[in-house]
Amino acid sequence: MQYFRLLRCVLAVCLLCVGLVAPAWADFYVVVQSAHPQKSLTQQEAVALFMGRSRQFANGELAIVFDLAREAPGRAAFYLALTGMTPAQVNSYWARLMFAGQSMPPQALPDEQAMTNLVKRNPNAIGWLSKEPADKGLRTLLVLKETAP
Amino acid sequence: MGEFCSWARVSVRGAWAAALVAMSAGASAQTLLNADGSLSVSGFGTVGATHVDAPAGWGFRRESNQAGKTAGWTADVDSRAGVQLNYAPDPRFEWVTQLMAVPRARFTPDNELLRWAFAALRPTPQLQFRLGRLSSDLMLMSTYRNVGFAYATVRPPVEVYGLVPSVVDGADVAQVWPTEQGRWRAALMLGQARAGQYDAGGPLRLRDMGWATLSYETPGLTVRTAWCSGRFSNNPQDAQPAIDSLNRVAALPVPQVASEAATLADALTTSGRHLGYFTLSVRHEAGLWQVQGEGMRVTGLPQGRLYGGYLQVGRRLDEVTVFSQVSQVKGTAALALQPQWQAALSPLIGAPAAAQAQQLASATATGLAAAGADQRTFSVGAAWAIDPKLMLKAQWDRVHATARGAAYWSPRGTQGVQANVLSLSADFVW
Questions:
Q1: Given CB atoms, is A43 within the 8 Å cutoff of chain B?
Q2: Is B223 helix (H, G, I), strand (E, B) or coil?
Q3: A89 close contact with B: CB closer than 8 A
Q4: Which of A143, B9, B117, B151 is buried most deeply by CB count within 10 Å?
């Protein structure tokens, strides 16, 4: 009996250790203004918007996509979760479009506060955040789970 | 013209230096120049070294508007640097200007430094009009073929991209239809372009060009077909004296000689020829694998009807992509005349003039025979994304062109060629 109790304690400690060293998987939130008519977004639709294949929401309204700066924490993980592409692959993809004169990457904002402020003000804007938006002026259309690199 | 070549080389060095400074300063792609983000500047470049192991007198090149490079190491085949300015004061309007410095051939027009300069109007999110100097999406990589960072190989396959027109002046309209899985895109373009051998005959002008492309794109799949038609409005500059002389011989009352002279003159003449291009392209990315292939059919060239294509398979291993590629082009007609005019013409125009005519006929026939297209290349290589903005590449090409199929080489011999081309490059964006 004591043996089983000891085993349970060891297992509990092991699980605790695993919990401590395991990566904390983050979520990413694709957001629009809270008054926006669109209620949700599929991952495919989000890929089309953030990768320049589409310039419109489901209702046909113009979508203006905003990104966080290249150096922003979580940006590489966001694109990996969204598209499965590494930062170099994302840049290579955009190089094909922008230097062909077809499409430009989303305009980059300096930080998440700037993203929150801009999306709240602009009814056509769509962006992403690494924390669930607490601001009532924003609506989350899609939650992305971080994936292993 | 030599001074211009030197100037272009200096421009390339300057652009590399600017790019390296920008990269080392931490500048990211698409640097914003004003507060509202409507004006941005970005750039790309390649520092390349190519070793050509070919018989003496054969010059390797990646496009027909380059001067070929003979044996040894050279930086001129793949090195280039570009800078692009985008001004978009409104989501519905954009102005794009791109300048690119590249080692140039003798007859390269000065204004080819300007790659794109166009205004784009998007009245709806799905509809776009453009006017100015445009990128032409005739083939999968033709719009970004100078941006090495955008693909894994050192250069697009020479057999398929070597003759694609470099710049197009005109207007186009494109419409997109989103679907559940991806999107359809159709584009129509009208304008004029330039193509041809810039190191020898100067650019050939293509007038009355019409262009249509239809593509279907999903995140992992791109399928595209394109059709293009145009009319050459001039002859190669260096061929004009020969054409004139052959036409004079064709007017002589010696039927056999006149007929052969007319055939030779016609083979050298491009003015009035109607160019036709048809292409089919597929790219598929599935997990770590990527497969890409294109086929083309070209009509109206002096080399006859051309059929070309390539197949490329790549696999990603973390940040390294290894690839293998096979490409081939074959023309249906390489002129095979062996004119013997001297004896027939001597009584009519005298021995010295007949000897000159014979010399012209032999040289023209020999040159035309070698100027056909019959070439294939096997390539293997790797691209390492060492940084999100920098890619290092290595590629080995085994090239084989037959005696009647060396149109892609300049200068070229008459016996065919088997060559090894080793290429190293650093491709970056900023």
A1: no
A2: strand
A3: yes
A4: B151
Helical H segments across A1-149, by residue range: 2-21, 43-50, 75-83, 87-98, 112-121
Query: How far is the C-alpha of B268 from the C-alpha of B260, rounded, in Å?
Result: 13
Q: Topology of A25-145 in CATH? A: D-Maltodextrin-Binding Protein; domain 2 (3.40.190)
pLDDT given for residue B117 in this prediction: 95
How far apart are the CA of A18 and the nearest CA of chain B, in angstroms?
26
- Per this entry, what is the length of chain A? 149
Contact call for residues B292 and B275 (beta carbons, < 8 A):
no
How far lies B167's CA from each of B97, B132, B204, in Å? 13, 11, 12
User: What is the mean pLDDT of the segment spanning B182-196?
Assistant: 91
| pLDDT for the residue numbered B72 | 87
Q: Is the pLDDT of residue A105 over 70?
A: yes
pLDDT over 90 for what percent of chain B? 52
Average pLDDT of the segment spanning B173-185: 90
Is the whole-model pTM more than 0.90? no
Query: What ranges do the domains of chain A cover?
Result: 25-145
Chain A and chain B share a number of CB contacts under 8 A equal to 114
SS3 A57: coil
Q: Which of B29, B120, B146 minimises the CB distance to A91? A: B29
Rounded CA separation B389/B27 (Å) = 10
Tell whether A14 lies on the interface with B, counting CB pairs under 8 A: no
Contact A91 B98 (CB under 8 A): no
The residue among B420, B423, B319 whose CA lies nearest residue B47 is: B423
Tell me the two tokens of residue A36. Answer: 């926006």
CB contact under 8 A, B118 and A51: no
By C-alpha distance, which of B71, B430, B381, B320 is closest to A89? B320
Q: What is the predicted pLDDT for the residue at B83?
A: 95
- Rounded percentage of chain B residues whose pLDDT exceeds 70: 90
pLDDT band at A77 (very low <50, low <70, confident <90, very high): very high
Say if residue B13's pLDDT is above 70.
no
Interatomic CA distance for residues B396 and B322, integer angstroms? 12
